[in-house]
Amino acid sequence: MPWCEPCAKYFAPSALTTSGDCPSCGSHALVTGNTNKVTAKNLDLKALAASGGQGAEKIPWHFKLLVVLLVIYLGWRIVSLFL
Ligand SMILES: [Zn+2]
Fold first, then answer.
1. How many secondary structure helices (H) and strands (E) does the chain include?
2. By C-alpha distance, which of 72, 3, 67, 74 is closest to 35?
3. Nearest to 36 by CA among 81, 72, 1
4. 53-68: per-residue pLDDT in tens?
5. Which helix (H) or strand (E) is 10 found in, with range?
6. Are 5 and 27 in contact (CB under 8 A)?
7. Which residues lie across from 10 on neighbouring strands?
8. What is the pLDDT of residues 16-61, one digit of tens each?
């Protein structure tokens, strides 16, 4: 929707002049995009993920330790089958 900054008003595309200017002040600086509204086009998922989940993707050290111990244990169980 065209937005006129000097008038601080939205205009229907049909309400504009034939050259696409503001009908009230004649300003040519009409912003057609929704600058302060989150849409599918301007939604930045990476920035959202970085700000929202602060370090959410970081694996805790005790989980890594648990996985290492599990691998060692299962490895030993397999080795012990052939002993
Ligand atoms: Zn205007």
1. 2, 3
2. 3
3. 1
4. 555 568 899 999 999 9
5. strand 9-10
6. yes
7. 3
8. 888 878 888 887 766 665 555 666 766 777 776 666 655 556 889 9
What are 70's two structure tokens? 């599990």
* Residue spans per domain, the chain: 1-34
Encoded tokens for 64 = 């890594």
Contact 24, 11 (CB under 8 A): no
Give distance in angstroms: CA of 35 to centre of ligand 1. Answer: 17
pTM of the model as a whole: 0.33
CA of 30 to the centre of ligand 1 (A): 8
Q: How far is the centre of ligand 1, averaged over its atoms, from the C-alpha of 51 (Å)?
A: 36
